[in-house]
Specification:
Elements lengths: L10 E5 L15 E2 L2 E6 L11 E3 L2 E3 L3 H8 L3 E5 L2 H13 L4 E5 L5 H12 L4 E3 L5 E4 L3 E4 L8 E8 L2 H13 L4 E6 L6 H14 L5 E6 L5 H12 L5 E5 L17 H16 L3 E2 L6 H39 L1
Parallel strand pairs: 1-3, 1-6, 6-7, 7-8, 11-12, 11-13, 13-14, 14-15
Antiparallel strand pairs: 2-10, 4-5, 9-10, 9-12
Length: 325
């Protein structure tokens, strides 16, 4: 199993190429391994026909036509801030279950428009920013070299691309591997996606442990703690919460971490601890902490199994003695 993307994912890439330059000239910072179609943005011009190709892939005038013609079921959108909302609403209207948005500084009215469209749909939005989605050996949307990922049993949900790569490297090195990686890259529309992805990891049969990585801003930690508390402690969770930095106009205190920010961070940590998460202060210990928790669970499982076997054997002996008498 996997969450959001897998080997069956078929991606339509919507970007502002003009229909005549080769893909290499686009200098796109994020690639999609399972791309099946290209769609020019509405303001980019281009041929506007499904009979034209770019890098051997068909070009369609709209995302809806790409979905219908080549069964695209995920949209990767590159958009300028002013056109981001329009592109996302188009993808939602076309029925894409997953939309990945690469855009910086989407204006407030655009974010509000996106939220309204999402509220009326089942689409999952990842972005804006420079997010990354990986299902090892299945599909990748992102800029990280794929060799650091190993198919395994740890789900990584992060608000930072750098931290998600670090967690992937550590879990790969320790033989745990990853069932999936979702990096939201501090996206301003991330809270709903964060909760949705956490629930998916909790429900995923291949995921045996979950790594949560946040930067301490927003309410992602409270969202995660509430969800974990509601579902119980079925899967181990290792979390790292970064220290919010003081605003530039705030005097530097204790390494530029404002006391109020430190208090807020501590409340987030307490919420996660109360929900059963194991907190690591250093990102360098993410993998070791997860391996330790899984090893402890396995040891406890073996003890329970041994005790169960002992009770079963003793009952069989008692039954044999009773029958013999």
């Amino acid at each position: 199993m996997a969450i959001l993307i897998d080997a069956t994912t078929r991606i339509a890439v919507r970007t502002a190429f003009d229909g005549h330059r080769p893909r290499a000239a686009l200098q796109l910072p994020v690639f999609a391994s399972n791309t099946v179609a290209h769609v020019p943005s509405q303001d980019a011009g281009g041929p506007g026909t499904g009979h034209w190709f770019l890098d051997s892939l068909p070009v369609f005038p709209t995302l809806g036509e790409a979905a219908a013609a080549v069964r695209a079921n995920a949209a990767l959108i590159y958009a300028s801030p002013e056109h981001a909302a329009e592109a996302v609403v188009e993808a939602i209207g076309a029925g894409f279950p997953l939309v990945v948005l690469i855009a910086e500084d989407v204006p407030a009215d655009g974010r509000a428009q996106i939220r309204r469209a999402l509220a009326e749909s089942k689409t999952v939005l990842v972005g804006p920013g420079a997010p990354e989605l990986v299902t090892p050996e299945g599909c990748q949307i992102g800029a990280t070299p794929s060799y650091i990922f190993v198919r395994g049993k740890i789900g990584i949900l992060s608000g930072s691309g750098a931290l998600s790569r670090e967690a992937a490297l550590q879990t790969s090195a320790l033989g745990l591997g990853q069932s999936g990686i979702v990096s939201l890259d501090r996206a301003p529309l991330a809270e709903r996606t964060f909760a949705d992805c956490l629930q998916r990891f909790l429900d995923d049969g291949e995921t045996e442990g979950i790594v949560l990585l946040t930067d301490g801003s927003g309410r992602l930690e409270e969202t995660a703690a509430a969800l974990l508390a509601a579902v119980g402690r079925g899967k181990p969770v290792v979390a790292h919460v970064g220290a919010p930095q003081a605003a530039p106009e705030t005097p530097a205190v204790a390494g530029n971490v404002h006391p109020l920010a430190a208090d807020v961070r501590e409340s987030k940590l307490q919420a996660l601890r109360g929900a059963g998460a194991v907190i690591v202060e250093s990102p360098a210990r993410i993998g070791l902490a997860m391996k330790s928790v899984l090893d402890q669970r396995e040891s406890a499982r073996r003890v329970r199994l041994a005790a169960s076997d002992f009770v079963t054997v003793m009952r069989q002996v008692e039954e044999e003695l009773y029958c013999a008498s």
